[in-house]
Amino acid sequence: xxxxxxxxxxxxxxxxxxxxxxxxxxxxxxxxxxxxxxxxxxxxxxxxxxxxxxxxxxxxxxxxxxxxxxxxxxxxxxxxxxxxxxxxxxxxxxxxxxxxxxxxxxxxxxxxxxxxxxxxxxxxxxxxxxxxxxxxxxxxxxxxxxxxxxxxxxxxxxxxxxxxxxxxxxxxxxxxxxxxxxxxxxxxxxxxxxxxxxxxxxxxxxxxxxxxxxxxxxxxxxxxxxxxxxxxxxxxxxxxxxxxxxxxxxxxxxxxxxxxxxxxxxxxxxxxxxxxxxxxxxxxxxxxxxxxxxxxx
Length: 297
What we know:
14% strand; 10 strands; single chain
């Protein structure tokens, strides 16, 4: 009798342990680049394992997917993209991987901005560079993870609400810091037009030789016009981007007299030991760098 009870208890324990292990298996999520991968990780916590297709300091405009990316996508329970035509290579990757899901577009609900480029109206894909837009991304992540894993919905909601509060504080911080600078000084030069949402939200004018994509190449006339504009508007500082080629912006700065303000993180995070290892760190770092440059420090 005791032996059968012991066996029964062991069987119940084994079943319970199996159940815990089954529940502990994290949701497999794929994100196209590190900025949104960090957002998904922050909301998902231990319940979600996140793979970023593009690593730190990578450029999502010109990325070339690998066989490992196709394998990760095939095994994903849920996939996150920023959207707005940023990840133009994704459709090819989905087809190659055999992925059957529908990617979650985190920019859904964003009030987009656009510009004329080579006779076409192009939508600006860099929506996350406004912290208020980051809040919209997080809301979309909470909804998608809760749908993919209903048992974790309460945890995703709690994590997401804490994160949203943090992003709202960063949004307020940016406004306070930048509004203390005279409007005439709120002008900087960057490698390409990736800070439009930031500029619109916080009142900064960004000039750049390239449009929304790093794939573009400006004409000599465009570069000359930009140099004249920088001189006329007394733009004092220029910035490189961690994921881009600095040579063109350095050439323009040398010709215009703009001084180096440092490096900004715009489309990808730094490695873990860098100054912008998370979206929140990246946003705060960019604000502080820009403010210091615009103040002339």
